[in-house]
Each structure stands twice: as C-alpha cells, then as structure tokens.
Write a structure and sequence with these properties.
CATH architecture of one domain: Up-down Bundle
Strand content: under 5%
Oligomer: single chain
Order of helices and strands: HHHHHHHHHHHHHHHHH
Helix content: over 70%
Length: about 400
C-alpha cells in the first residue's frame, strides 16, 4: 500500500466516525434507534456518492469486528442470569437455528423453485439474529431484564451455530448434495463443543495470569489478546471461533474480572470494551447502509420479497413453536414476550459477511447476495423502526424510561 492509498483509507475512516458522531447527536432529538439511524445515514451517503466506495469484506467483519463485539457482550453477561434461562437460550440458539434454516429452505425451494442445496445455504446464512437496536431499546425503556437476556443470549450463541451450519451447507452444496447424517452431527458437535472448551480454557488461563499482577493497561491488553487469540486459535484448530470467543469472554467477565482484577482495573477494562463495541457497531451499521445498491435490489425485488417472507415465517415458527416447550411455571415466557421476540429477530452484519464470503464461482451468487442484503435492510428498518410503538401497544413500556443508550 502506498502512502496515498493509506491517506485515503484514513480519511474515509475519519469521515465514517464523523458521520457516526453526527448521527448520535441527531438521535438525541429524533426518536430513532441509533443502529437504524446509522443504516439510513449509510444509505443516504451511498446514494449521494459523497464518499468513495467502502467495501465490507468478510475478513473485516469476521476477523476484526466480530471478536470485539462477541467478547464485549459475553464479558458483560451475567452467568447467573444465563444459567437461569439456559433452557430457552440454548434451545433457541441450536434447535431454533436449525428449524429456521429448514423452514427458509423449504419455502424458497417449494414456493420459489430454488435449488435445495442453495436454499439450505441461504437458510443457514440468515438464521443468525442480530437484535442490537432492539436490546438497546429494551434497556432504554426498562423492559424486563429476562426478556432482554433471552434475546441477547440467543443472538450471542446462535451466531456460532449459524456459522457452523453455513460452512456445512456450503460443503454440502459443493459435494452435489451428498449428506451423511452421522458424520454431519459428529462434526457439528466437535466444532461447537470444541470451541466452547477451547474458549473456556483460554479464558481461565488469562484469568489466572491477570491475578498475578495489578496493571490496568496490561490487563486490558491481555483481554484483547484473549478475544482475538481465542478466535484465531479456534479457527486454526477448525473449531467454532465464535463459540470460543463467547466462552472466553464469559469466563473472564464472570471469573477473571472478579478474582484477578481490582475495581479500578475492572472499570478500565469495561470502559475499553464498551467503547470498542460502540465504535465497531457504529462502523458496521454505516457499512451496511453503504453496501446497499438500490438498482440491484430492484432487479432482484421478487426473490428478495420471497426471502423476507421466508425469514419472517421461519422466525414465527421458531418463536411460537419452541417457546411453549421452554416456558416453565417458574420461568414463563408470556405471549407478549413472544410477540417482541418474533418482531425483534433482526439480521445484521454477520449475515452479510457470510453472503459476501460465497466463492466467486458459486451459482447465482449475485442474486443470493442481494437477497441477503434486502432481507437485512428490511429487518433493520421495518421491525427496527416499529419496535417501540409495538412495545407501547402491548402495554409493556414502564412509565419512566431510562436514559438513552446507543448500543
């Protein structure tokens, strides 16, 4: 890279940060979720062409942005709350993802005539939820913490399940549809549980190291090494990188931060990851808006419409079909919660990154990518903008709301 190219990239980054800052200021007066406002800002910038094109590459999302987001969310996750609602979270993040994939694939295959291998691949691709704006809204409005925990926990763990299924379905498509159930189930369990064990081990080791000294800068650096190191090592060992980062973050956040960090260090580390998540989310949602090309979306409008219908139908099946079996007398999931869980199943950057990672020679790659972009854009804008009115319509908004949070 020559100096001129570097300066262009720096200028672009600064411009994106300026837009993100301006958007954060604007939403103080306009009641729009921050992430949704960023997508709209990205759309406006992309259509007006006031900035040079900025590409969202799979490597950027999966290797740079995603570990930071996963680690920050898992670092802040309360292990006791997670244990309390482990049943709905684990079932939604595993069985729910599989049901979503099969439902989407069936609709696209039988109603849209899509090849079954491609339909399964798309179903796996769009099965990961990303309700960042919904969770932020729930916290702002003071919605029941259990509902927020279930949505956030499902999103955190179903990312790993969806990526594993996507990789399996991609291999399935490349082999011409040859499916070996025993090998597939065994591989799935190895990848998921292998990632969890590896991440927990790395998190425990990092926690023991941090207890040996007291230096908030060094300990913050070690958490960063833990986040990205667990991702890269898991990828090298061919287990789930996402599950590894989540497991490492949960262990460090719930064990290492309490046993090996002073209150001052804990505050410093928490502040660092809070800002990192804010920065990454801001850039990601801006990039989502910038990637959308309306002429291509219009060109593939019919298949995008079918894709949106399939995703919502699958989400309806997952939420209303699974919740009755994981709702107990002591820990119920009321009907009003289910309505919000259904409408809050947004899709985000991970889904787009998986679509962009499709091989260049993959059949109908352009149509699949634009169908994916259309689904992501629709879920972010429509449910994203109507979630607050739905909360109020259902009578779930407390009289006094909490201060606005951005992410």
């Amino acid at each position: 890279m020559n100096p001129q190219d570097a300066s262009i990239h720096v200028e672009t980054l600064l411009a994106l940060l300026l837009v993100a800052s301006a958007t954060a200021v604007v939403i103080k007066w306009v009641r729009v979720p921050y992430s949704v406002a960023l997508v709209i800002a990205g759309l406006i910038i992309g259509l007006s062409k006031v900035m040079p094109p900025v590409s969202m590459t799979p490597e950027l999302v999966l290797e740079i942005f995603l570990p930071a987001l996963l680690f920050e969310a898992s670092w802040n996750m309360d292990i006791n709350a997670l244990h309390r609602d482990w049943l709905p979270i684990s079932v939604l993040a595993t069985v729910g993802v599989i049901v979503c994939m099969l439902a989407v694939a069936s609709i696209l295959h039988f109603a849209g005539g899509m090849n079954m291998q491609t339909a399964l691949l798309f179903g796996a691709m769009v099965s990961a939820t990303d309700p960042v704006s919904v969770i932020a809204l729930f916290r702002q409005m003071g919605i029941d913490k259990r509902l927020t925990m279930i949505l956030e926990g499902e999103s955190l763990f179903n990312d790993g399940t969806a990526v594993v299924l996507f990789q399996m379905m991609l291999a399935f498509a490349h082999t011409g549809g040859r499916f070996l159930p025993a090998n597939t189930i065994g591989s799935f369990c190895f990848v998921v549980f292998g990632g969890a064990i590896l991440g927990a081990t790395i998190g425990y080791t990092a926690s023991r190291i941090t207890s040996a000294f007291e230096d908030h800068l060094l300990e913050t650096t070690l958490t960063m090494v833990t986040a990205y190191g667990s991702y890269l090592l898991a990828d090298y060992l061919h287990v789930s990188s996402i599950i590894a980062v989540v497991a490492a973050g949960i262990v460090v956040g719930n064990y290492g931060s309490r046993t090996g960090m002073s209150p001052t260090t804990r505050f410093a580390v928490n502040s660092f990851w809070e800002y990192a998540a804010f920065l990454v989310n801001s850039l990601l949602f801006l990039l989502i808006g910038l990637q959308v090309q309306l002429p291509l979306l219009l060109k593939h409008a019919n298949i995008i419409g079918l894709g949106v219908l399939a995703v919502f139908a699958a989400r309806l099946l997952v939420v209303y079909g699974i919740c009755p079996f994981v709702s107990t007398k002591d820990l119920p999931i009321p009907d009003k919660w289910r309505h919000l869980m259904f409408w809050g199943g947004l899709r985000g950057a991970l889904v787009m990154a998986l679509a962009l990672s499709l091989p260049l020679a993959f059949p109908d790659r352009e149509a699949i990518i634009n169908m994916t972009f259309g689904v992501v854009l629709f879920t972010l804008l429509v449910p994203g903008l109507t979630m607050e009115p739905l909360v109020r319509f259902l009578g779930m908004a407390p009289k006094q709301e909490k201060p606005i949070v951005l992410v």
